[in-house]
Structures are given as structure tokens and as C-alpha cells.
Design brief:
By secondary structure, this protein is of the alpha/beta class. It has a single domain, classed as NagB/RpiA/CoA transferase-like (Rossmann fold, 3-Layer(aba) Sandwich). It is 35% helix and 21% strand. The chain has a six-stranded parallel beta sheet with strand order 1-12-7-4-2-3, with helices on both faces. Strands 8-5-6-9 form a four-stranded mixed beta sheet. The longest helix is centred in the N-terminal third of the chain and has 16 residues. The model has no long low-confidence stretch (mean pLDDT 92).
Length: 226
Amino acid sequence: MNREEFLSRVRNAAASGRAYRVHVRGDIPAEAGYVGAGPDPAERFAAEANAVGGFAQLVADEAAARAALVELLDRYAPGSAFCWQHPLLDRLGVPALLQRRGIDILTHDVLAPLEKSAARSKMFAAEIGITSATLAIAETGSLLMASTSGRERTASLLPPVHVAIVERAQVVPDLFDAFAQLEAAGVENIASNVTLITGPSKTGDLELKLTTGVHGPGKWHVVVIR
């Protein structure tokens, strides 16, 4: 098959596909499909996150969140941590906490000056990822992560353990609410990569057996500050 024949087949297939366009009915109410999260979105988020194999815990305040993080650091004893640069983590004193424990802190500011291969080696060797999130969706127990400089998606993807700390203001009831917030921020302000994380990494590709931690973290913890 020559180039023109190939392109002709592509054009014909595209034209056939356009014949079956989906048209949105104008009489469907805006709230159709909205699930919500009940009276306590934070509690609903934790329940849903635990149901998909995560480990979510509700804590009363920032002091309790620091204590929860210390407990996780004691459990996993990481030598290095790939961390977001985020106001909530700064308020919690996460960088100072890691420094006192002798944990190598990897952030955008630390990695950016390094030669590319050296930075990649450090990121792939990180033993724990510590992030916040853009939003936490109570309906499904999902984290919405909008990647920017200092809030890299790799922090929640590469380490075998991912710990996310969020506060009540970041929890929205439903996926529709998350999209509404992104829309309100303006298309020009939406990150080039927006990811939904629901539980630890899972795959069923190998003999149809569910395996955890193959394509990402096998342990997924979320600390929710009430």
C-alpha cells in the first residue's frame, strides 16, 4: 500500500466516524449523574480510599498530621524522600522533619540544578513520595493531581510508597465538583498533566491476576486533616 492509498483509507474512516457523532440532549438537568458525598465528605473520602486498597486516616489538626507522618516514616524508614514543594507541607514543617531524621530530601529545587541523568537516578531511587494534592474527591476516594514545577507527578508515581497529606478545604464531594473547580480556574491555568489516583498501583495484565505495585506505588497513604 502506498502513501496515498493509506491516507485515503484514513480519510474515509474518519468520514465514516463523523456520521455517528454523539449529540448532547438539551433537556438533561445539570445535576444528572451527580452522586455527592453525604454530610461528611472527609469521612466519605477516607472510607472510599480504604475500600480501594489505600490507607486513609482522618486527623484532627496539623499536629496530628505531623504525628501520623512520623509514624509512617518510622514504619518505612526511608533513606530518601521525593517531596512536593507545597504550602501545606511547609506549614507542617515536613522539610525540617525529614532533615532532622537524616532523610535525603528531593525537591524540584534540589533536583533542577543536577545533570539530567543524575536527577533521574535520584528520583528513581527515592524510597517514599510525600505530596499534597490539588483536590481530593470524596465520591471515589481519588486524588486529583495537577502537575507543575515543584509538584511533579513523578513524586506520586516512582517511589514504592506514596504519602499524601490534604486538608478539608481540598476535599470536594463529587468528580463534577472537581471539574467545576478546574473550569473556574480557567483553561489557560490548567496544568498540562492532570492525574486521578485511586488507590495503590494495580494491574491484572499477568494471567488476569491482580497485582499491586507493578506500575507505581504499592503502598498508598492519605492523611486528611479535618
